[in-house]
Amino acid sequence: MPSFGKVGSFFRLIRWKNLLIIAITMVLMRYAIIDTLIGNIKVSLHGQGNNIPLSLQFPLFDFIVLVFSTICIAAGGYIINDYFDIKTDLINKGKVIVGTSMSRQRAMMWHNIFNVLGVAGGFYVSARSGYVWFGVIFLLISGLLYFYSASYKRQFLIGNLVVAFLTAMVPMLVVIYEWPPLYTFCSIHAVSVPDFSFLFYWVGGFSLFAFLTNLIREIVKDIEDFEGDVAYGRNTLPIVLGVKSSKVVVSALAAVTIVLLYLVWFSFVRDWVTLVYLSLTVAGPLAFLAIFIHKSNEKRHFRFAGGFMKAIMLAGLLYSVVVNIIIKWNLF
């Protein structure tokens, strides 16, 4: 039987907290955003009268498989990342799991298991949705995570963009798989098919936010890991442009994110609840982060900034709950 210490190491290796956030993200996109929005759409069904509210059509079991598959792919990505980062992690973190608590061979075994489960589950839910080729998404993401760890993260900016893109894909997967059964249901049972493009705009907003904030966090982490990355010849942004210039990039990305938040609010939302929430939990903290990063010079400061960015990302995600409350209570 494995010891509790080894079990704990295994869960740290697969970043169980991050996997939990992935699951929560997908659940919130499904129930707080998509279900809430389509519930406000009234359609006329053949033989059942008018003004009947729509409901989720992607089966719950299939959604659970979708979440499980996404988590498996992410877990495999975390394992392969640590597999290739043993030397740099020893410098940057002072400790590693792969090579100590777990052998490299066993780590690769678990990487393969998680990827097989993730890709298989992805093709299953894709077939169930009627678009089996959607399963290729999981295959491509699995490959991107492998090549990110093996090569891309050592290249200028490419690794940061790959991770930010894959993070942005998590909320989008939910709407991608909900749309086909929803459209099919309306095509068969409804007098006319509503325009569901607004679902992609709403979830796409969360994806864009995830992309920008994760890109900021990745650059902050690169500044924090500057010492180890230099030692092993990586071409991260702080190494190529310098730490000072990287701080400017972080501040610029934070400013762009803040501007986009208010632009979206002004153009599409304009309710006071959203304005107050985003100002206090996202825009304000991002402005503080930009100033803090600019004045920081020590490793512990950048470690704090990375953790602070996680809090901002979580606050942005929890805006989905605020949307649910605004719509249900008519707080426009």
What does this protein structure show overall?
- By secondary structure, this protein is an all-alpha fold.
- The chain has one domain (4-329).
- 78% of the residues lie in helices and 3% in strands.
- The protein has helices at 4-13, 16-38, 60-84, 86-92, 104-129, 136-150, 158-189, 197-224, 226-231, 237-241, 243-269, 272-295, 299-329; strands at residues 42-45, 49-53.
- The chain has a two-stranded antiparallel sheet with strand order 1-2.
- The longest helix has 32 residues, at 158-189.
- It starts with a helix and ends with a helix.
Q: Roughly how many Å is the radius of gyration?
A: 22 Å
Structural class: mainly alpha
Helix count from the secondary structure assignment: 13
Low-confidence stretches: none
Number of domains: 1
Q: Strand portion, in percent?
A: under 5%
Compressed to H and E, one letter per element, the order equals HHEEHHHHHHHHHHH
Strand order of the largest sheet: 1-2
Distance between the termini: 57 Å
Largest sheet, described in full?
2 strands, antiparallel
Average pLDDT: 92
From the spread of the alpha carbons, the general shape counts as globular
Quick description:
This protein is an all-alpha fold.
List the helices and strands and how they pair.
Elements: H1 4-13, H2 16-38, E1 42-45, E2 49-53, H3 60-84, H4 86-92, H5 104-129, H6 136-150, H7 158-189, H8 197-224, H9 226-231, H10 237-241, H11 243-269, H12 272-295, H13 299-329
Antiparallel strand pairs: 1-2
Helix pairs in contact: 2-3, 2-7, 2-13, 3-5, 3-6, 5-6, 6-7, 7-8, 8-11, 8-13, 11-12, 12-13
